[in-house]
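dude i think i finally got it to work??
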Amino acid sequence: MKKSIGILWVLTVILSFAAANALLTFYMVDNFEDGTFSKWYVFDNIKASAVDNPAKQDKDSIGDSCGDKSLKIAGAADNWYVGGIGTILDVDAVEYSRFSIDVYGTESLGKLKIELFEKKSEQSTEEAKWIAEVPVLGEGFSRFSIPFSSFRLDRNNQALFHSKKGGKISKIQLICVASSEKGSVGLTIDNLIFTY
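look at this
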């Protein structure tokens, strides 16, 4: 009986340790808490600025996790397209299975295209572009947790992102698309994370 309890205790400790490590498996792309976005490049009609998060009126678990700062991106559309932001990465895709982002919308709705660029090997210069889209909802933070299996290859829209086969996520871009041809977008993003 004592031996069974001892084995059970050891298994409990091992499983607890494994669960704790699994919960901590993430890569923070950016949460903008330093008040800058210097590692990001901005293109086309987008204007970007690090801003204070809005004061929370009600209990908001997503807003509470967003800290003090986030990145505001806004701009006017030309044929639906506004522009975007991006940053260079070197993230091993095998370690993760999803991308998470918090988006604070305004009255200017639209959508956010998330583009992951995958380098096949260290020697290769060829990159595959994987795309997923999320809607920009109304005012308040919305959390989107997008499995890699929801990303589609840019060229044929058939293939699935294959993080378990290796490859590096070399770059991420966020592209803003307005809800009307000559509309605009205005949103704030925070907590860009790769996680398991």
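The helical segments are 2-23, 61-64.
im so relieved honestly
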